[in-house]
């Protein structure tokens, strides 16, 4: 009886943890690329948008790969 | 061992098991979000890649260890060490030791700030410390 209770308790803790994890987590789908605006410190998802980055010393846009591993590319965001 | 001591010990083990399994499973469920959050932290990308898998595996393993009596003692020590490291990192971020403040982790904790995260971590560290202390007094199953 004590053994069964112990097993039920363990299974209950594991199940509860899994239920809470699935209930309170919203998976983030892979997105990007992103355009970073340093003035507002925000990222804008530009996936599906054709754009180019032109070098312009008075305007700066920063391009990052979604995996955040590439070097940032300075330039100006222009929608084509 | 008295019944009340046994209940306290098991409660501590199961509570910490719940926390670690919850965070581990939520990290796996939102792996992409976890990966991005890890890369957004203040350490280099190479360290982030290593920690991404290390933390998830460690959380799940320690969580499972705390559920079974033969491994509960080792599990509680492991949880205590991990909580110390997590709390130290959160404290360093909160007190602006690093040059920037990155975003928080996933799950329900993504809705709380670094200050609240620090308080929660200190609470859990205290729980883990009680578990280690009681083990040191020879109180276990």
TrEMBL record, chain A:
Q: Which residues form the signal peptide?
A: 1-23
The UniProt keywords, alphabetically, are: Signal
Keyword Signal assigned to the entry: answer is: yes
**Name of the featured protein:** Uncharacterized protein
Originating organism: Belliella pelovolcani
UniProtKB/TrEMBL annotation, chain B:
For this protein, the record's InterPro entries field holds: Methylamine_util_MauE
Q: How does it sit in the membrane?
A: Multi-pass membrane protein
Enumerate the UniProt keywords alphabetically: Membrane, Transmembrane, Transmembrane helix
Q: Which domain of life is it from?
A: Bacteria
- Principal location class: membrane
List, alphabetically, the Pfam families matched: MauE
Chain ranges passing through the membrane:
6-25, 46-68, 74-95, 107-132
GO CC terms, sorted: membrane
Compartments where located: Membrane
BP GO terms, sorted = methylamine metabolic process
Does Chaperone count among this protein's keywords? no
Q: Report the residue ranges that make up the Methylamine utilisation protein MauE domain in this protein.
A: 9-133
Its name, as the record gives it, is DoxX protein
Question: Which species is this record about?
Answer: Belliella pelovolcani
């Amino acid at each position: 009886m004590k053994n069964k209770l112990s097993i039920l308790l363990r299974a209950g803790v594991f199940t509860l943890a899994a239920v809470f994890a699935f209930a309170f987590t919203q998976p983030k789908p892979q997105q990007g690329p992103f355009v970073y605006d340093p003035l507002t410190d925000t990222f804008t998802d530009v996936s599906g948008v054709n754009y180019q980055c032109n070098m312009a010393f008075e305007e700066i846009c920063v391009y990052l790969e979604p995996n955040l591993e590439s070097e940032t590319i300075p330039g100006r965001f222009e929608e084509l | 061992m008295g019944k009340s001591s046994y209940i306290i010990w098991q409660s501590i083990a199961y509570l910490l098991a719940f926390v670690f399994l919850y965070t581990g499973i939520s990290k796996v469920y939102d792996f992409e979000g976890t990966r991005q959050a890890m890369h957004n932290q203040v350490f280099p990308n190479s360290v982030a890649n290593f920690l991404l898998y290390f933390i998830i595996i460690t959380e799940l393993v320690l969580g499972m260890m705390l559920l079974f009596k033969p491994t509960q003692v080792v599990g509680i020590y492991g949880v205590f060490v991990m909580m110390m490291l997590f709390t130290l990192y959160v404290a360093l971020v909160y007190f602006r030791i690093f040059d920037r403040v990155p975003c928080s982790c996933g799950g329900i904790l993504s809705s709380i700030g670094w200050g609240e995260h620090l308080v929660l971590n200190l609470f859990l560290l205290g729980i883990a410390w009680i578990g280690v202390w009681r083990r040191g007094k020879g109180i276990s199953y």
